[in-house]
Amino acid sequence: MNADEVFSEIREVNLAYLMLAQRLARRNPVEAQVRLGMSAELTAIIGGLSAAQIVRLADSDVLLCGVGLQERSMLSALNDTLNRHDMQTMHAAMLLAQLPARTV
Q: How confident is the model over 46-100, as pLDDT tens digits?
């Protein structure tokens, strides 16, 4: 994969992420903050962007989203299929909700 292909893939991910973030921000800002780890200010900004602004922002060679799982325990909680139990999804959501929000 050459550099142009990598940048093209990054732009596609950026556009998908920004569209998801905007949809969540407009539908339920608090949910967007928790699920995407965004601050209230960033959620309001993304929710208010026009389609043209979303496309311009996505057209970057810098990935705008990141993996929210920085600790092995969180990844394990989401991925542990051997010890799956009824409360596992709720437990994982509680762990993820403890992550600090990203700021603008």
A: 999 999 999 999 998 899 987 655 556 656 666 665 565 566 666 666 666 665 6
37: left (phi over 0), alpha (psi -120 to 50) or beta: left
Alpha-carbon dihedral 46, 104, 8, 48, rounded to 10 degrees:
10
**Domains of the chain as residue ranges with CATH:** 3-97 (1.10.4000.10)
Rounded to a whole number, what is the largest CA-CA distance in the chain?
Answer: 46
Tokens of 31: 């949910």
3-state secondary structure of 17: helix
101's CB contacts (< 8 A; 6+ apart) are 33, 37, 38, 39, 40, 42
- Rounded CA-CA distance 5/11 in Å is 10
